[in-house]
Each structure stands twice: as structure tokens, then as C-alpha cells.
Amino acid sequence: MDSNEFGLPSETDVFEEIAKSEQQIKVTTQTRRYGKKITLIEGFDKHVDVKSVAKALKEGLACGGTSKDNVIELQGDHKKKVRPILVKLGFADDSISD
Predict the structure, then answer these.
(1) Which residue in 93, 90, 48, 88 sits closest to 72, CA to CA?
(2) Which CATH number fits domain 24-97: 3.40.50.11810, 3.30.413.10, 3.30.780.10, 1.10.287.1490?
(3) Binning pLDDT at 50, 70 and 90, where does residue 1 land?
(4) Please, what sign has the CA dihedral across residues 44, 48, 54, 60?
(5) Would strands 71-75 and 25-31 be described as parallel, antiparallel, or unpaired?
(6) Entry pTM
(7) Tens of pLDDT, residues 39-55
(8) Which uninterrupted H or E stretch holds 81?
């Protein structure tokens, strides 16, 4: 029997939740060509699904972006708005630095 038949979290879900609480995430902004600002979110390890985190951030902030090499790039300056969304996704508030 699979544990998901009973609505229990799978082992990978449990490991990802533990990994989220132990991250040291850094949020910075950068100015690119033609004065365009981007927000960089880095510090994820291999246990976190960076693509799903990037998708949730892009939906929550209504912006475009991408994830490359465990770094999320968002179009625009969203430095102040990223923290509450990351906390809602399960990351520890004190592990996120601006």
C-alpha cells in the first residue's frame, strides 16, 4: 500500500519540508541592460524543487522570471514582496536575508 492512499505525506514531501526550514535564502536586486531591474533569490539546495518555488513566486507577484542553477530570477524589483510568499511556501522567516 502506498502512503498517499491515506492522505499521508510521502517521504520526499517530508524531506522537502525539512530542507525548506534549513535554507539560507538571500534576496537581492540587480540592474541589467537598459536599466531593467531583476530580483535574484538564491541559496536553495538540491532538496528543494526550485522550479515550483519560482512558479509560485511568479504567480504571486504577477511577473515573469526563470530559474537557473538553483537561482530564481524575477523581472522587476520585488525585494520587499518576496519574503511573505516564501514564508507562505514553508521557508523559515529568519532564514531569509534581504
Answers:
(1) 48
(2) 3.30.780.10
(3) very low
(4) negative
(5) unpaired
(6) 0.78
(7) 999 998 887 889 999 99
(8) helix 79-88
